[in-house]
């Protein structure tokens, strides 16, 4: 009786173990299936989010590339326009310099022709007849002649004088000087000695040109001419009237 009871108990226990094992197996399968399904869903959702973000990034990158290309194109056009503007500015600058030079030359010609009023610093040279010497038979050796005046006037012009006048009579390109005994005639007007020659220009330059060794002053003094020179802060010349 005891042996049968033990066998029945063992069978009953084994049956419970089998049922429990089946239950655990089913639960394990359900849990594994559920976990796998969760992973698949999460992966699918992750792919959806990542794909949308990638498309958005790609679109923005393409827009950026297009903007950079447009910017480079505009930059090249800007550089071309800027180079053209610089070239135009250089040409205008050259033209302005040319016009300025022409205007300066025209102003010099107007002053030389005596068409405009001139004012500025300069020098004043006085040429007077030499003292009479009874032993000298030729009185002309002590008189100022037109060639003495010409030497002074020519030296002044060569040294950069802007305008020259003799005894207030302004000279022009058509002026003429003639000696008539003790007087000289300038453009038809007679003037007695002393002859005052005024010139507008750089006083230091004009003075140095006349006073250089062996120059105009020395030549006139050797001809018994009384030569005096004075610097002037301001000299005025009016325009020459007439045609």
Automatic annotation (TrEMBL):
A molecular-function term among this protein's GO annotations: RNA binding
Listed InterPro entries: DUF881
Keyword flag Coiled coil: yes
Coiled coil segments of this chain: 57-98
Keyword Thylakoid (UniProt): no
A Pfam entry, by short name: DUF881
Alphabetically ordered keywords of this record: Coiled coil, RNA-binding
Family the UniProt entry places it in: Belongs to the UPF0749 family.
Protein name per its UniProtKB record: DUF881 domain-containing protein
Organism: Neobacillus piezotolerans
Upper taxonomic lineage: Bacteria, Bacillati, Bacillota, Bacilli, Bacillales
